[in-house]
Design brief:
The protein is an alpha+beta fold. It has a domain at about 200-285. It has ten helices and nine strands. It has helices at about 1-35, 35-45, 95, 110-120, 120-140, 285-290, 290-355, 360-395, 400-405, 425-435, and strands at about 100, 105, 150-155, 170-175, 200-215, 225-240, 245-255, 265-280, 410. It has a four-stranded antiparallel beta sheet with strand order 5-6-7-8, with no helix packed on it. It has a three-stranded mixed beta sheet with strand order 1-2-9. Strands 3-4 form a two-stranded antiparallel sheet. Helix 4 (about 110-120) crosses helix 7 (about 290-355) and helix 5 runs antiparallel to helix 7 (about 290-355).
């Protein structure tokens, strides 16, 4: 009995201890996990970091206008003229390769590639990259910023998706990566002193003068006085980002005179001077004098983002034009089938009228339906030709070739009902992906 009583007492004590410990453990765990919920919620509300734009060099040449020509082995090479290539007005060979049997067989991928190669909207935006590079080079030389427009070139004919639109050609500049009616023009230089000229400057003055004057004094006689003066001056100046300017001058002159009363002939004067000027207050420091360089590099990144946005916009326009062409083809085929059916119905009605099983009014109604279908077919064919012309304007630079002008465009891709990967993504995931990849952000 005593043993059983001791076992029962121990069991009750353990039960009480477990009842007191479990709420404490649960409370401690709740206290530890409680701050995690707001942190998780806060992390979900934080937008993702946008993808930084890297420099894009989608150009016809590999010239980098942010750097000067190397000085070695030709020391005068940095000071020579840099020629900018003239824009190409011809079509790329890819377009002629798609022309077969008098028709242009065009897929969606070919249309996008041809637009990137031949579309003038992209060509205009590509030049802005070189303009931004020259601004970087100008800032490295100590000059102010010229600025570059980062507006989106829009208005390509047919890109809006409507049947008939106004305008044409490469379109006009509108608000794009920046703001305002003409886009963001990056030319603000701000206040503050102008930096020193950071490019080394070499100057020289070489002169030679010979004069002959008649004698006007009885002491020098009647012989004319001849004098010569030769000057050989050289100078070098260069500024630095610290606000320092270094200058070196080396001046030489040599003069001769036949006047017998002159003490020295020839008379030679030579001077050498080296000066170093440092701004102590206004114009002092790297941060102040390199502000234009920092701004020019930021403007270059903005131009890269604007160019990326121009590519996305142009590709979107070309895709809309392509699917508009596909829709016009489908509509034209549907109108042909409708006309064939109404024509067949009219023939059948005339046979029934001849044998007396149909009223004449039904034949008149069927003839009216045929005329309506013919009118709809003509309108659909006109729209198809218009969409083909819009497609050729979007993918070609030059339509002067008669074979290219008269060739119909046959789209080889059709609308599919396959499920897109984006349809399986959540709305939050799509928004975060757009926030990361949007060039404007």
């Amino acid at each position: 009995m005593k043993l059983r009583d001791m076992q029962a007492t121990a069991a009750i004590a353990l039960l009480l201890m477990s009842g007191n410990v479990q709420p404490a453990v649960a409370q401690t765990a709740a206290q530890q996990s409680a701050p995690a919920a707001p942190a998780a919620a806060a992390s979900e509300n934080v937008p993702p970091a946008p993808k930084l734009t890297e420099p894009l060099y989608l150009r016809d040449t590999g010239t980098d206008y942010t750097h000067l020509h190397p000085m070695f082995p030709n020391l005068l090479k940095p000071y020579t003229v840099t020629s900018f290539p003239a824009p190409s007005l011809g079509n790329t060979p890819r377009l002629s390769q798609l022309l077969r049997d008098g028709k242009i067989y065009l897929s969606l991928s070919d249309a996008v590639l041809l637009a990137l190669e031949n579309n003038f909207d992209v060509a205009i935006a590509r030049i802005n990259l070189d303009i931004a590079d020259t601004d970087v080079l100008r800032a490295k030389a100590g000059g102010g910023l010229r600025g570059v427009s980062t507006g989106l070139v829009t208005g390509t004919q047919g890109g809006s998706g409507t049947t008939v639109v106004g305008g044409g050609g490469p379109g006009g500049t509108s608000a794009g990566a920046g703001g305002g009616a003409n886009g963001l023009v990056l030319s603000t230089s701000g206040g503050g002193p102008q930096p020193e000229n950071l490019d080394p400057t070499l100057t020289s003055a070489l002169e030679y003068e010979a004069t002959t004057t008649a004698s006007t004094s009885a002491f020098t006689g009647s012989t004319p006085i001849k004098s010569t003066t030769a000057t050989f001056n050289f100078g070098y100046t260069e500024g630095f980002l610290t606000g320092t300017q270094l200058g070196v001058t080396f001046n030489n002159s040599r003069g001769t005179n036949t006047n017998p009363f002159n003490t020295y002939s020839p008379l030679i004067n030579t001077s050498f001077r080296a000066t170093a000027t440092q701004h102590l207050l206004q114009g002092f420091g790297l941060a102040l004098n390199s502000r234009f360089i920092v701004q020019a590099k930021n403007d270059r990144r903005i131009t890269d983002s604007a160019f990326r946005q121009q590519l996305l916009y142009t590709v979107n326009q070309v895709e809309n034009i392509y699917w508009g062409l596909v829709s016009a083809y489908e509509d034209e085929q549907a109108k042909e089938r409708a006309l064939a059916q109404s024509t067949q119905l009219t023939e059948d009605n005339r046979r029934q009228l001849q044998i007396g099983t149909l009223a004449p009014l039904d034949v008149v109604n069927s003839d009216s339906a045929v005329a309506t279908d013919k009118q709809a077919l003509v309108a659909s064919q006109s729209n198809l030709e218009y969409q083909q012309l819009i497609m050729k304007q979007a993918i070609a630079r030059n339509l002067e070739d008669p074979a290219l002008t008269s060739a119909p465009v046959i789209p080889t891709d059709r609308v599919a009902l396959d499920r897109l990967p984006e349809e399986d993504m959540s709305q939050d995931a799509l928004v975060r992906q757009a926030y990361t990849n949007n060039p404007s952000i």
